[in-house]
Structure formats: C-alpha cells, structure tokens
C-alpha cells in the first residue's frame, strides 16, 4: 500500500499553538499575493514557444542540479539522470524518473523535498508519496497532465500568479524572446532580462577574446582597445534597459572590487586582447571591472547584484563531460568588508546605486553584510541563496540580519531557479517562514500584530519592488 502524500496546512509554521495561530493569520495575508521573481534562470523562450513540457524527467530531474547532485552523491551517474544527453526517449525518461522515485528517502529533511512535495501535490494532484512501487504510475499521471493545454508554460505561469519574472542573459543576446513577449497583446505579465557580464570581465577565460569581439559586433563598436570595450559594455547595458532590464548580475570567485588607474587598465586590456595576459593581471582586471560595473549602475540605474563565493565545477571530469551547473559547485568562505571598501567609498552613497549582496557563507550575515547594509544607503542583504535557501537557514538569516539592519535593508525573496515548477513552492516556503518569524516577534511582544501584518506583506510585495526598482 503506497504511503499518502499530504501537505499539512501548517507546514513550517511554529509548533507552539499560540504562535501558530498568529503565524496562520500572517501567512493568510500573503499566501495569494502575486509572485515577484527578480532573479532566476527560467528562459524567456520557454514562454514564447509555449510548447508542452517533454516528460516528467525533463521537468523535475534532468535540469535541476538541486536534485541531480544528491542522486549523484548516492552513486547514480549524471548520464543515467539524462544530464548532457539532450531530449530523452520515453523509455529513457521513464528510467530517470524511476531513479528519483526509488531514492525518494534521500531528500528527507531537505528543501528539495518540500518543493517536490508541493509541486507534485499542488500542481499535479499527486496523492501518493513516490517510491519504487508507484514510479511508473506516477510517471503516467504526470505525463498525462503535461499533455494538456492547462499544463503548458503560459498556463502554468498564469496559474502560479507570477507578476514579474527576471531571466539571466548574455550581454550579446538580442533579447528577441523578451521583445516577443512584450509585443504580445495576449501576454500581460512582465518578463525582464538580466545583464550577466561575467564572461566578458574575466580575460583569462579561453574564449574571452572571441567573446569581446562578438560583443563589439552586436554593439556596433570596435573592441580592439579598452575604450571601445567599455563603450560596448555601456551600449549593451542601455540595450538591456530599453528591453526592460532592471538588474545586472555578477557571480565571480570573490567579492573584491579594486580599481586600476586608467593606464594599467588599458595596458592589461592590450595584453589580454593579444592573448598574453598573466593570471595576476586577469584577476586585477576583473576586480577593476566590478568597480566599473558599479559606476555604470550609477549611470543607467541597473540594480547591481553580487553572487560571489562558489567554487565552480569542483569536479573537473564532470564539468568536461556534462558542462556547468550540474551539481559540483561548492560554497566557500567569502570576505566583503575589505573587499568592497574601494567600491563603496566611491559609490556607496550614490543615489543611483542599489547593490544587493548575496552570500554562500552565512557567517558573514551578522558580521559583515548586515552592518554594511545598516550604514550604506546603496547596500541591501540578498535573501538566502542556493545552499542556504532552506528552512532553517532562512530562519537563521532573519535572526542574524534583522537585529542590525531590520527588514528594510533586505532584498525580498529571490528564487534563483531553473526549475520552473518550483517557483511557487519556493515563494510559498519563504512566506511561511517569514510568517513564523514574525509570529515569534509578536508572541514576544516585540512587534504588534498590525506591524507584523504590514511587514509580512511588505516583504513579499513592497520590498522587492523598491530594491529592484520594479
């Protein structure tokens, strides 16, 4: 007999009855509010094409490194999960789905389990907990739903209540998909591109020269010298703004922003363009360009988000076989206070800059990020990201940041996901956890209920609008 899959209405709310009653009231105030997703990785083309999702494995398993990494840790090869194999045949997709169901207990206690339970139950009406015994039956049920018009991307987007969705895009992208959505009279939501220039700022990458040449081509500006390179980046940023972008995202190894004088920047650029840059020069140039990106944000208004601190592609054989974003990125310690001081001394009080700082190192929440956001009007603490977007970590985030920086110096929730169907589950989790935290403050007589209600709504709606200038 299969075990039932039930979503308790009070999941993630406090166990103590008095606090739970307060949390229920707070959660009820935000449960149905529209979703604002100012940073993520769902492609706009998915919504333009509006094609049915291919199969349950392609929706739930293969593209989601949150899922594949833990299955890989249990001894399943990434190839057997369909990673890097392109569209799967029906038997192959079914085999991938069986792996997920057979190893369902691996996800106990993880946020992935919360999201998958919510997706299966709320979106697809699944009432049985996945297992080896019911894997094929569940596959058939989900596949049947995916074949219907109500489960195409646009229909689900509307059902999820998404009002704003940001994608992540290469600066040389023509943004045709975004333009198509913007000009479609049947499309009412806002889907905005995000300027992600990392590959153009790191001259020790093997494809850097080719990339900056292409950037110059699409910008219509010669990038053979440093001045042209800067002008091309500025032109592409303007192009993104014209197509609705609100932010520029940066994900480098560290948070260091250290300006070079103009002669050194020009000299290193010439060396890089000639293919003769040293590792030290490339690092110095990238750190200089982070400062330049802040300057440009002051000019064009793009919110600057910084996501440092990931040791990317930790397992080189997996990277070479399957590509990036397949689960082998590992968090590491990151320093912000000294690293960002040159940038903040120049632009930290500039009215044009909004700088959202994310971290994978939770030790800096109270020690560095909250104090920085508690002084500099440009700085906001980004929501728990990636390995920290989990119930206990989100609660620790609120406890660590709020006492120094309050609620107004945080970003609002950011789902940062490639897994389309997990978006409402992730936002629901954050709303429940914030309701639980605020209920505790009310229960301890640190906030009145009306203040907690106002704050709960503001964290979902007002704060992301202000921070990301929506």
UniProtKB/TrEMBL annotation:
It comes from Nocardioides terrae. Gene3D superfamilies: Metal-dependent hydrolases, uronate isomerase, domain 2, chain A. Keywords: Isomerase. One of its GO terms (molecular function) is glucuronate isomerase activity. It holds the Pfam family UxaC. Its EC number is 5.3.1.12. Belongs to the metallo-dependent hydrolases superfamily. Uronate isomerase family. This is Uronate isomerase. Transmembrane segments: none annotated. GO terms for biological process: D-galacturonate catabolic process; D-glucuronate catabolic process. InterPro entries: Metal_Hydrolase (IPR032466), Uronate_isomerase (IPR003766). NCBIfam families: PRK02925.1. It catalyses: D-glucuronate = D-fructuronate. Pathway: Carbohydrate metabolism; pentose and glucuronate interconversion.
């Amino acid at each position: 007999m299969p075990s039932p899959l039930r979503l308790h209405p009070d999941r993630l709310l406090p166990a103590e009855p008095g606090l739970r009653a307060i949390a229920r009231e707070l959660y009820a105030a935000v449960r149905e509010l529209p979703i604002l997703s100012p940073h993520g990785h769902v492609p706009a083309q998915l919504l333009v094409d509006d094609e049915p999702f291919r199969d349950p494995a392609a929706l739930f398993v293969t593209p989601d490194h949150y899922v594949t990494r833990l299955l890989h840790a249990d001894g399943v090869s990434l190839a057997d999960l369909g990673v890097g194999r392109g569209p799967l045949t029906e038997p192959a997709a079914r085999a991938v789905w069986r792996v997920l169901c057979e190893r369902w207990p691996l996800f106990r206690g993880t946020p992935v389990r919360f999201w998958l339970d919510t997706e299966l139950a709320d979106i697809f009406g699944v009432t049985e907990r996945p297992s080896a015994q019911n894997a094929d039956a569940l596959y058939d049920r989900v596949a049947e739903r995916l074949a219907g018009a109500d489960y195409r991307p646009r229909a689900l987007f509307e059902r999820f209540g998404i009002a704003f969705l940001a994608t992540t895009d290469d600066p040389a992208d023509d943004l045709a998909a975004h333009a198509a959505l913007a000009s479609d009279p049947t499309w009412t939501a806002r889907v905005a591109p995000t300027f992600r220039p990392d590959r153009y700022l790191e001259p020790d990458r093997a494809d850097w020269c080719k990339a900056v040449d292409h950037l110059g081509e699409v910008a219509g500006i010669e990038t053979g010298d440093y001045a042209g390179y800067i002008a091309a980046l500025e032109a592409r940023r303007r192009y993104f703004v014209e197509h609705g972008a609100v932010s520029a995202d940066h994900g480098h190894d560290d948070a260091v922003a250290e300006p070079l004088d103009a002669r050194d920047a020009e000299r290193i650029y010439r060396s890089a363009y000639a293919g003769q840059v040293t590792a030290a020069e490339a690092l110095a140039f990238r750190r200089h360009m982070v400062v330049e990106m802040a300057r440009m944000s002051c000019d064009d208004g793009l919110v600057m988000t910084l996501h440092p601190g990931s040791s990317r592609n930790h397992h080189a054989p997996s990277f070479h076989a399957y590509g990036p974003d397949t689960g082998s990125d590992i968090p590491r310690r990151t320093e912000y206070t000294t690293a960002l001081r040159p940038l903040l001394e120049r632009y930290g009080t500039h009215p044009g800059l909004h700088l959202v700082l994310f971290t994978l190192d939770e030790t800096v929440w109270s020690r560095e990020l909250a104090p920085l956001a508690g002084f500099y009007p440009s700085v906001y603490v980004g929501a728990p990201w990636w390995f920290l977007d989990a119930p206990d970590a989100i609660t620790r985030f609120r406890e660590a940041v709020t006492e120094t920086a309050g609620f107004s110096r945080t970003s609002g929730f950011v789902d940062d996901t490639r897994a389309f169907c997990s978006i409402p589950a992730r936002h629901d989790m954050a709303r429940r956890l914030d309701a639980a935290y605020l209920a505790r403050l009310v229960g301890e007589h640190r906030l009145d209920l009306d203040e907690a209600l106002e704050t709960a709504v503001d964290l979902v709606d007002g704060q992301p609008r202000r921070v990301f200038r929506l």
